[in-house]
Amino acid sequence: MASRGTESLGGSQSTQTNVVLPNTMQWTMVSKRGRSYRIMAAIPTQECLPPGYPILYVLDGNSVFGTAVEALRLQCRLPEKTGVVPSVIIGIGYEVDEPFSSERFYDLTPEPTREFLYRFAEGAVPEQGGADEFADFLEEELKQLIERNWRIDRTRQSLLGHSLGGLFVAHLLFTRPGSFRYYIAGSPSLHWNKERMLDEERSFASKLAQGEIAQQLEVLITMGELEASHPSGNYELARKLAERLTLLEQHGGRVHFLAFEEEGHVSVLPSFISRALRFACAPQ
């Protein structure tokens, strides 16, 4: 840990150092298309039993990786009581120190829209519409790198995203359902590419009904209770999507919708992440 100088703290001389999350690392990874990502990894200290660790890929890693890692580290110590086993967590973020980067608008949206220009009154509209390119990076580059370095149970791969990240999770579920087993969407921004998402959902439902999707899919969709009053209408969009996705149960899958009491779009994150761990990293 790097020294940050010496000051008088609490009446004594103390050397300041950075706070480091145990058993974590990060590095910069440049995709084949030249996009740069900060990749964060948390690896369990517990022995890896066959067939390998469950793995949770977390979008917007700059904002939620630390919360997810600490929640897992505390809960996986006693799986029989908490319902959470030791698992690998991979955060995908950007080369910034802020919680969010404008680059996420490109990676997490299926197609460009100018419907929400009011959000960018003080600056340029971020580039959008790169979700499929980002999905290629996850599937063809990042996952392969992780699996070369750690023993991963490929039948227990999860993807977690919040807000625009939740939109991306839904997009991937509909268009590449075999990429993950668990799809976890918190407060998904389903209003962003609404018509495109409905088309993708209809195509997904048709393929599922025709037996073209072999994977037994498990989906968790959550919202903060206070989001019900937001003008975007995402609360109802998410609730109704979960209702329609009960069709997964006819094919061996499951879907859950949860609303967290007295939580808003941002305050809901710790509750959402903790519940997601019990959903995707439960003992089997």
Question: Could you characterize what this model shows?
Answer:
With 284 residues, the chain is of the alpha/beta class. It has one domain (20-280): Rossmann fold (3-Layer(aba) Sandwich). Helix content is 33%, strand content 25%. The protein is built from eight helices and ten strands. It has helices spanning 61-75, 79-82, 104-108, 131-149, 164-175, 194-209, 234-244, 269-280; strands at 3-9, 12-17, 24-30, 36-42, 53-59, 88-93, 152-162, 182-186, 218-224, 254-260. An eight-stranded mixed beta sheet has the order 3-4-6-5-7-8-9-10, sandwiched between helices. Strands 1-2 form a two-stranded antiparallel sheet. Helix 1 (61-75) packs across helix 8 (269-280) and helix 5 runs parallel beside helix 6 (194-209). The chain starts with a strand and ends with a helix. The mean pLDDT is 93.
Overview in brief:
The protein contains eight helices and ten strands. With 284 residues, the protein is of the alpha/beta class. Helix 1 (61-75) crosses helix 8.
User: What's the CATH superfamily, by name?
Assistant: Alpha/Beta hydrolase fold, catalytic domain
| CATH architecture tag | 3-Layer(aba) Sandwich
Question: Number of helix segments?
Answer: 8
CATH top level is Alpha Beta
Oligomeric category:
single chain
String of helices and strands: EEEEEHHEHHEHEHEHEH
- Principal-axis shape: globular
Largest sheet: 8 strands, mixed
| CATH fold title | Rossmann fold
Q: Mean of residue pLDDT?
A: 93
Q: Report strand %.
A: 15-25%
Strand order of the largest sheet: 3-4-6-5-7-8-9-10
pLDDT < 50 runs, ≥5 residues? none
| Cα-to-Cα separation, first versus last residue | 37 Å
Domain count: the total is: 1
Helix content: 25-40%
Find the structural class using helix and strand composition. Answer: alpha/beta
Tally of DSSP β-strands: 10
